[in-house]
C-alpha cells in the first residue's frame, strides 16, 4: 500500500475507475440546560467533575429519568429531516467497558429510534451551477455522552505510554442525537462536496432549530464518515471504512477525498479493504487504521429496564411540526433572491459560512452588498489568520451595520471604514469607540477644510490655473493634496466642491 | 416498661406508646440496640446486621422525642426502630449489598425510601445482611458470613433478605426493609415466621436500591404483624419522580385494609389456589399448613376455587435468563475506577487489568455465575433464543395472572416448597437453591403484588411455613385484608403470635 498521499492515485484517477458510496453519522450535543437523564448542568468549561450527581456518575442505586426537552429536540430534528416519528420507542443499553463510561454501558437507542426514514436536501456548487441533492436519513436517535479521559505523562496525549489518566465526568450524560444517513450515492466527482454540504446544511439546520450551537471545534457536533468504493457501473457495495471524528467542514471534504484515493490504491493492487475504523489526521491530511479488532464488538443491546418507553402524543408532534424553521435549501434560494446575488456570490457567502451573519447584518440596517463585502473581505481574512470561525472573529453583525451607516452618513470614507473594522477586530471596542479613540472621523469642520484647500491651491498655482481654464481633469491633483494633508480624513466629495467653488466663476 | 417488654412489642404499639409519652423514642431505640448487642454476634449469634449505627440511631430518636416535647404531630411510626437491608443507600452508613466489591463504600446520598423513613421519624438501627447483590435464597452468598435463623441457628433465614427477616424473628427490630427480585422478601418471611410484602412493581421507589435486576427488583415492608407491615408500606410507597418506573398513582389504603381484615370477615372474597404450585417437591408439613390456612380463609367467608396458571411452570427458567441478563449489565459499573474495592493498582498495570483483577477478587461465585450467564444470553446470535424467548414467557405468565384475576380476587400457594434448610446443605447445588423461589418468581415477572404470612410450623422439623398471597397490580390492599384476617384467626387459635414459640436465644 502506498505510504504517502503523494503516491496515491489522484482523485480524478480514482473516480475514473470507482464509484464511492458514503454514509454519514453525525453526533450533536443538545443545548439543553440539564443532562439527558439527571438534573446536572451541561454548561461548557466548568472545573472537572463539578457537574455530576449519583445518576451521571452511575453510582450504585441511582436511576435515570428522561429529559423531556431533549426528547422534544430530538423530535424537532427528526421532523426537520422529514422523518417519521416513532409512536412508541425504547431506550436500550449498549454494553462495553471503558473508564470514561460511569456505568460501563451507554443508554442509547437500538432498534427503536425516535425518528426514522427521512430526507434532507443539500446544495452543492458545480461548474454548471448549483445542484440540489437529496440525502436519505436512516434514523436519528437519542443517547447520552460519555465522560472525557485525559492521559497524562505520555508524549502524545494518547493512552499508550501515559503514566496515568484523569477522568472528567462533566460531559457524561449530556444529551446526544445521532443522525445516520442512508447510503449516499451521487456523481463521483461531487461526493466529497456533497459530504461537506450535508454536514454544513445539518449544522445550519440544528442552529436554526435552536437545539444546539453545533460548534464543531467544541465537539458539539462530531462527524464519522463511512466510505466504500465499487467498480464503476456495478451495483454491489464494497467494504466500508469508518473515519472517526472528522471535526470541521473542510476536514469532511478532505477525509472523504483521501479515503476514496486510498481505497482506490488498495483495490488497484488487488487487495481487499479491511472493515475498520480509521483516524483522521488534520495535519497530514491522511487517515490511519484504528486499533484492529479481532471481531466485531458485541454490545449486547437490550431494552433499558430503568426507563419506560417514550410515546410522544401525536398532537404534541403536530404542534412541534409548527415550530420548524425554513429548510436550509429553501432559505438559501429565498435569501439569494432577496439579496439579488449571483450564484457565484451566494456560493462565496455560503462557503464562507457567512449566510447567517450577512442576514443579521442586513437586518441591522446594512445593504446586502455592503454586508457581503465586509464578511467576505476584511473579517474573513482576520478569522483565517487567527484560525477561528467567522462569528468568533470579534465583530458582530450590528458592528458591521454601524460601520456601513457611518459610511452612508459621510462620517467615514472607505479607507477610514476599513481602519474602524480593523480596530473592532483588534478588540478596541465598538465602531464608535474606535472612531473616537483613533480620531478617524472625516474632517467636516468647514473652516479647517477650507484652509487645507486654500493651502493646496497656493502650493500648486499651475494646477489651479488649469482648472480656472476649464480643465476639470486637474481637480484630482488638488483633491489628492488635500487628502494627504488631512491624512485621509476628509470627505473627498466635499473637497472637490470647495475647490470648484473657489476656482470657477 | 422493661427492656424485653419493649423489644417484643409491635411497631404500632411502640409508636402509640412514644406518642402518648409512656416511653421515649430513645428508650425504645436503646432497648433494641441492647438486644442487638446481646444476640447478634457474627460468629455465634444471629448475625442479622452488617453495620449498626448506635450514635446516629439514638440521635434520630432524640429528635423524635424533642418534636414530641415541642408538641409537634408525630407520624404513625415515629420513634420505631427499623432494620434496613444493606442494598438501600444511606448517606450516614456504609452500603455494601453484601459484596466485598463495595466493602466500606459510603454512599453520598439517601435512597428515596431511606429519606421517607427518616422524615416519618423511623429510627434506622443499621444495615442487614443479605446474599451478595440480592442473589441467593439463604444469605449464605453474603461476602460477610451467613445469617442464622432464630428458630434454629443451624438453619438458613432465607434470602436474599435473611438479615432483615432474622432481625424481626429475633426481636432486634419490629420493622425491616427487604427487596424482592424473585422472592427475597417473601421467602425469608416464610422461613422465619414473619410477614413480608412485595408491593406492586413501581409502587415503591427504587431510587437508591442497588439494582440486581431492574425490571424485577421491588423494595417492600417486613414486620412481625400485618398492620405493622401496612403502616411501613404507606410510609415508603408512592410516586417518586426520581424513578421513571414508579407509578403515578396513590398507594392503595393498605392500613385501612389491614384494619378491615382484622375484623375476620372475608365474605365476598374469591380466592384461587394455584394448581401448578404444589404437589411433587413440596414438603408434607408445608402442604399441610398451607391447606389448613386456606381452610381458615374459607371459614372466614372467602370462596375458594382451584385455578390453573399453566405457564408458571416456565417462570423459573425464564427468570434465570432475564435476571442474569440484567445483572450482567447492572454489575458492570463495579470496575474499581470510581468507588469500592480496587485490586492490583500498583502502577504497573493498565486500567483494564485493574478492572479484571478487582472484579475477579470482589465478586463471589454466584455473582460471577450470573454475570457469565447473562453475558452469554445477551450475546448476538443468542439473544433471540434466550433473552427474547424469556420475555415471551414473561408475557405468558402475565396473561395467566390476568386470566386468573378475572375469576378470583387473589391467588394463593405455599410461599416456599420447603421450610428452612440447614446452612451449607445447598451451597454446591445452585439448581436446588433456585427452586426455593418457584412460587414467588411469577409475581416478579408480572409485577403484581404478593406477600407471605405465617401459617404455622411444619411438624417434621418445627420450622415456620408461609402462606403466599398474590394480588393484581395496584391491588396491594387485598394482600393486607387477607393477611390480617388470617393472622387474627390463627393467633386466637394458637393463643398468641407464632413468634411466641421461637426459642429463647442465648444472650451475650
Ligand atoms: Zn448528573
Automatic annotation (TrEMBL), chain A:
The entry's keywords: ATP-binding, Ligase, Nucleotide-binding, Protein biosynthesis, Transferase
Entry coiled-coil feature ranges:
none
What is an example of a GO molecular function annotated in this UniProt entry? Answer: glutaminyl-tRNA synthase (glutamine-hydrolyzing) activity
Q: Which Gene Ontology BP terms does the record give?
A: glutaminyl-tRNAGln biosynthesis via transamidation; translation
Asn/Gln amidotransferase domain location: 356-503
Q: Name one Pfam family in it.
A: GatB_Yqey
**Catalytic reactions on record:** L-aspartyl-tRNA(Asn) + L-glutamine + ATP + H2O = L-asparaginyl-tRNA(Asn) + L-glutamate + ADP + phosphate + 2 H(+); L-glutamyl-tRNA(Gln) + L-glutamine + ATP + H2O = L-glutaminyl-tRNA(Gln) + L-glutamate + ADP + phosphate + H(+)
Q: Which Gene3D superfamilies match?
A: 1.10.10.410
> So which residues are the signal peptide here?
none
The EC number(s) given in the record are 6.3.5.-
Top-level taxonomic group: Bacteria
Q: What does this protein do?
A: Allows the formation of correctly charged Asn-tRNA(Asn) or Gln-tRNA(Gln) through the transamidation of misacylated Asp-tRNA(Asn) or Glu-tRNA(Gln) in organisms which lack either or both of asparaginyl-tRNA or glutaminyl-tRNA synthetases. The reaction takes place in the presence of glutamine and ATP through an activated phospho-Asp-tRNA(Asn) or phospho-Glu-tRNA(Gln).
Into which family does the record put it? Belongs to the GatB/GatE family. GatB subfamily.
Write down the HAMAP family for this protein, in alphabetical order.
GatB
**Quaternary structure annotation from Swiss-Prot or TrEMBL:** Heterotrimer of A, B and C subunits.
Q: What is this protein called?
A: Aspartyl/glutamyl-tRNA(Asn/Gln) amidotransferase subunit B
Q: Which organism is it from?
A: Phytoactinopolyspora halotolerans
Instruction: Tell me the organism's taxonomic lineage.
Output: Bacteria, Bacillati, Actinomycetota, Actinomycetes, Jiangellales
Q: Its gene? A: gatB
UniProtKB/TrEMBL annotation, chain B:
EC number(s) from the headed UniProt entry: 6.3.5.7
Active site as annotated? 85, 160, 184
Could you cite one Gene Ontology molecular function of this protein?
Answer: transferase activity
Family named by the database record: Belongs to the amidase family. GatA subfamily.
Q: What is the source species?
A: Phytoactinopolyspora halotolerans
**One GO BP annotation of this record:** translation
Which InterPro entries does the UniProt entry name for this protein? Amidase, Amidase_CS, Amidase_dom, AS_sf, GatA
Q: What keywords were assigned to this record? A: ATP-binding, Ligase, Nucleotide-binding, Protein biosynthesis, Transferase
Q: Does the keyword Protein biosynthesis apply?
A: yes
User: What chemistry does it catalyse, as a reaction equation?
Assistant: L-glutamyl-tRNA(Gln) + L-glutamine + ATP + H2O = L-glutaminyl-tRNA(Gln) + L-glutamate + ADP + phosphate + H(+)
Pfam families the record matches: Amidase
Its ancestry begins with:
Bacteria, Bacillati, Actinomycetota, Actinomycetes, Jiangellales
- Asked if the record carries the keyword ATP-binding, the reply is yes
**Xref: NCBIfam families:** gatA (TIGR00132)
Job description of the protein: Allows the formation of correctly charged Gln-tRNA(Gln) through the transamidation of misacylated Glu-tRNA(Gln) in organisms which lack glutaminyl-tRNA synthetase. The reaction takes place in the presence of glutamine and ATP through an activated gamma-phospho-Glu-tRNA(Gln).
Q: What is the primary gene name for this protein?
A: gatA
Q: Where is the Amidase domain?
A: 27-479
- Subunit relationships: Heterotrimer of A, B and C subunits.
The Gene Ontology CC terms held by the record are:
glutamyl-tRNA(Gln) amidotransferase complex
Q: What is this protein called?
A: Glutamyl-tRNA(Gln) amidotransferase subunit A
